[in-house]
Specification:
Length: 207
């Protein structure tokens, strides 16, 4: 028994390709230099490192009043401790880490701001998570090691991490739930329109 080869002929009809902005973003992920992906990881973790280092300065700064009084009484050992505290190397390191990390993330956002997918996954989401971690770490340190006593550096750190958390959260939801959502909806409409056109073309060819 022989089979009609026409029954088993594969459908070789060419389906039209769709080039939408969403497709361009997906394809654009492969064109972004690997160095920028590495820098995005580096800057977000550098920001977190600054948040983690900041709480290490709280206890030292909170004790400055007692150390200052001891130094004024002529205690040489306490005077040396006071001199070391006033240098505050950890405070500078934390500030530099936060500054460089924040500026680097801002530069990458500006550089690739047209690719919503990349900036969401590489800049906003990691920045939001790290800022929240930094805020939680600061509050835990204040209420566990400082008995809820907020020093100047603790207040500054809470304000900075809080602002960064709010800003990155707003940018994440703005890009993910509004900008990228609109691009996806436009892509889906183009897909539906193309499918309808392709179905009509196949019907005409069969007739």
């Amino acid at each position: 028994m022989t089979m009609d080869p026409q029954l088993y002929r594969p459908d070789l009809t060419h389906r039209p390709s769709i080039q939408t902005r969403y497709v361009d973003m997906l394809l654009g992920l492969d064109t972004i230099p690997r160095l920028h992906n590495i820098l995005a990881w580096f800057f977000t973790w550098l920001l977190l490192a600054g948040y983690v280092v900041f709480p290490a300065t709280f206890t030292t700064v909170n004790r400055t009043d007692a150390i200052t009084q001891a130094a004024e009484d002529g205690n040489e050992v306490e005077r040396q401790i006071l001199d070391g505290v006033r240098n505050a190397p950890l405070l500078y390191i934390a500030a530099i880490c936060c500054g460089v990390g924040g500026l680097g993330m801002g530069w990458l956002w500006f550089k690739w701001r047209q690719n919503y997918i990349w900036v969401i996954n590489r800049v906003f989401l990691p920045g939001l998570c790290n800022s929240i971690i930094g805020l939680i770490s600061t509050l835990v340190n204040v209420y566990s090691a400082q008995n809820g006593d907020f020093s100047v550096t603790a207040k500054v750190t809470v304000i900075v991490t809080g602002i960064c958390s709010i800003v990155t959260a707003l940018l994440f939801f703005l890009y993910n739930n509004w900008a990228l959502s609109r691009v996806r909806e436009s892509h889906q409409k183009e897909m539906d329109r193309s499918q309808r056109g392709f179905g009509h073309l196949c019907t005409v060819e069969k007739v």
